[in-house]
């Protein structure tokens, strides 16, 4: 154990095992933490960058769903200087033990922690910092941990105020007094308690965490930590909030993922290349972007290796993507290797990696409130075909002219 704050050892755990079904079909072949963001980054890069800039060095990543796609990106922790002989990054895959002969697959994030209580005890940690891997934000965790110690809290919950109160039903809702002590907690309530929600950043007393998880597991009360773990600790009367200042967004749905890119295009979001706090990724070197004479690009991000000859407006064009002459791309995210053929019109869409939109095809709708549509990874929309708002082409599938796409399911 290397990381110490105020004389206490700190273990950081990133929960990266969820299926991410609300981001489907982008997560049909890739773990949610490995989903690209802004073309260059992956979602997990924001948590990992915050960790290393906060001076934390002992990091566990608990995996489950499609771990290979994530492990390839993690590269043993090298990009974040976490490839160490002692401490550093440690990947925690699902495992089977004497108590779970059928396999150690978790049913919720509290259960994922409970499966590792023995290892947490063996680590000798005094404090456990638990993070999710699908949020976009900047935060120095050291002051959060210091406040946790100063208040002798059972748990410290980092919170933020969201602009749309109705969206609070997607999150854990928190009410607190002037001193920050949590007075009320509700997990994804039907009626919001207010605009203050948990940011999925939690600081726990290690002994209390493992003991509480043991009790809940014996009672059969597992699931997500908002269901039983956090309410149990809040009942003690020593749970506190730590308000997060600045940008934060949970990009766990397609609409939120698309909105996050819009935020950055409109000048919101985060400063990605801040000298004191750069966001670090494991990226592949690309050649320069090629902008051809007939191209028109307005209010967009274009990544290295892209080749643009068409019209691109309010969009992100990923590494190595192609927009041919006469094609129009608006309010769209084109991931790495995507191709938009001549004459195609793509609007309010996500074209996943190596997806192809054929000559003269139409994808999405022009209305500002049109539902998103998605061309899955390595999927193809044939020339002249139409993919309507709210529809998808599954990864690797093909939409022929005259066919109808599949409806996107779930909350998007």
Automatic annotation (TrEMBL):
Assigned protein family: Belongs to the bacterial/plant glucose-1-phosphate adenylyltransferase family.
One BP term from GO: glycogen biosynthetic process
Residue span, Glucose-1-phosphate adenylyltransferase/Bifunctional protein GlmU-like C-terminal hexapeptide domain: 295-364
UniProt region (Disordered), positions on chain: 386-412
Name of the molecule in the record: Glucose-1-phosphate adenylyltransferase
Record key words, sorted: Glycogen biosynthesis, Nucleotidyltransferase, Transferase
Spans through the membrane: none
Superkingdom in the source lineage: Bacteria
Domain Nucleotidyl transferase: 12-265
UniProt-listed InterPro entries: ADP-Glc_PPase (IPR011831), GlmU/GlgC-like_hexapep (IPR056818), NTP_transferase_dom (IPR005835), Nucleotide-diphossugar_trans (IPR029044), Trimer_LpxA-like_sf (IPR011004)
GO molecular function: glucose-1-phosphate adenylyltransferase activity
Gene3D superfamilies: Hexapeptide repeat proteins, Spore Coat Polysaccharide Biosynthesis Protein SpsA, Chain A
